[in-house]
Amino acid sequence: MQLSDLSALRKRQQDGDYLLPAYEDWCFSRIPGTIADLLGADIGPRLPDAATDGYDDISRVVVFLVDGFGLAQWDGERERIPFLRRFERAGTVTPLTTVFPSETAAALNTFHSATLPSEHGVIGWNVYDSDADEMFEALPFLRKDGSEPERIDFEDVADAESIYPELSTAGIETHHVTPFPSASAIPHTYDPEDLSTFPDAFAEAVEGTTDPSYIFAYLPQTDAIGHAEGVDSAAYRETADETFARISDAIDTLAEAPDDDAGGTLVCITADHGLIDTDPERNVDLSAPRFDLVSKLRTLTDGTPIRFAGSPRNVHLHLEPGHIDAVYDMLTTELDARVFRKQEILDTDLFGPNPSEAFERRLGDLVVVHRDLGVWFGDEEPSSLRFISMHGGLHPDEMLVPFATATLESLR
Questions:
Q1: pLDDT score of 216
Q2: Cα gap 361→315, rounded to integer Å
Q3: How many angstroms separate the first and last alpha carbons of the chain?
């Protein structure tokens, strides 16, 4: 890793204690276009040439996306996990920012569509859509009571098309190795609760691949254990150990494949976001009497207050018009947080340029991004305030992610 590159990126994107997304060049959102370009297709913006210098005649790209394993986590674990040091010696680790919000639902929709959150309209894990008169979790597309939304279809959650039909048209075969079935590529599933099932699913993908090809593998385990135990916990370290042991096994499977052109296979490791440890004892409960906030929220047509939009690090408040200014003043006084007004977000392209209609109607009147704590409605969803590691905000440890690349030949 070029420390000067990281320092320059941080200096350029820093805004006080916050780090803004680098949509114009060094951003996670440009990975899909970069992969497509390496394989001879054009689906959207790519990273600067320096990110892939020296990678010529690539016929297969393999991406391991380790959920929640940001650049801070890579740097924190590299001395302990030999595989990470091996990968650094074999290739390059390029620092990128992720998108805002630094959340899986937003980032994965970006990754699979090559569009920004401002375009696809997924503003966080929780979404309120005024046209549908629904609050729901974008993943796994459920209301808080466990039922499926009735007034919006899953296909309409993201206002964007998948990149995979276009890749197929360009002659690129795509396989997904994920804990859930994929409808947009050739699926290979494994049990997320048992990482030992991952290598077989990956091997199945390798065996079934015809080049030019793209294999995408998604591993969410580090993110899940981080929420529960924190990134400084023994459980997190054990999960990271196993995750990269399984990735190492998968790379061995690639190397052992018959008729393999190791120089033509590019292996990439990245993350949708990083993690920061919050303090469950101090995380902010917006339903507390001192805020007197719930009564000021807009409601669904049945009278339910619109509490669930965004996440505890990216809170979207949909307020009655007469209360917006007073709530803004109160929150900026009470919290160590940035409170963005809707127009400020649109003017500064925080979620990206070219806002879609879906994005504009889902965007809160105010968006609250705390410096280092969680902020949520504890009376309705207390478990969210008990999380230790969180993400979704603009802390550098949430926003910076690795884009690690090496040819299969160099990893042998």
A1: 98
A2: 15
A3: 20
DSSP codes joined into one string, 94-107 = EEEE--SS-SHHHH
Closest CA to 352 of 21, 85, 108: 21
- Contact assessment for residue 311 and residue 139, using Cβ atoms and an 8 Å cutoff: no
Residue of 331, 316, 312 whose CA lies nearest to 388:
312
| CATH code of 320's domain | 3.30.1360.180
Instruction: State the burial class of residue 354 (Cβ atoms within 10 Å of its Cβ: 0-12, 13-18, 19+).
Output: exposed
**Residue 391 belongs to a domain:** no
Beta-bridged to residue 44, according to DSSP, are none
Number of domain units in the chain: 2
Q: How far apart are CA 284 and CA 330, in angstroms?
A: 14
Beta-carbon contacts of 303 under 8 Å, excluding residues fewer than 6 positions away, are: none
**Which domain covers residue 273, as residue numbers?**
3-117+158-277+396-411
The residue whose two tokens read 């990273």 is 47
**Residue 306: inside a domain, yes or no?**
yes
| Distance between CA atoms of residues 194 and 295, nearest Å | 44
Rounded CA-CA distance 213/221 in Å is 26
What backbone torsions phi and psi does residue 220 show, to the nearest 5 degrees? -95, 5
CB-based contacts of 150, cutoff 8 Å, min separation 6: 134
How many CB atoms sit inside 10 A of residue 357's CB? 10
* Per-residue pLDDT tens digits for 2-56: 555 899 999 999 999 999 999 999 999 999 999 999 999 999 999 999 999 999 9
Residues 241 and 298 in one domain: no
Kindly list the distances between the CA atom of residue 399 and the CA atoms of 100, 310, 337, in Å, as whole numbers in the listed order: 8, 16, 16
Backbone phi, psi, residue 377, to 5°: -95, 95
- Of 281, 349, 364, the residue nearest 99 (C-alpha): 349
